[in-house]
Amino acid sequence: MADMRVHLGSDHAGVELRRVLAESIRADHELSSEIGPDRPEDSVDYPDVATLVCERVLADPGSFGVLVCGTGQGMAMTANKIAGIRAAVVLDGYSTRMAREHNDANVLCLGARVAGPGLANLLLSTFLAAEFAGGRHARRVAKIDAAGG
Ligand code: RB5
Question: What is the residue with the minimal CA distance to atom 3 of ligand 1?
Answer without folding.
Answer: 70
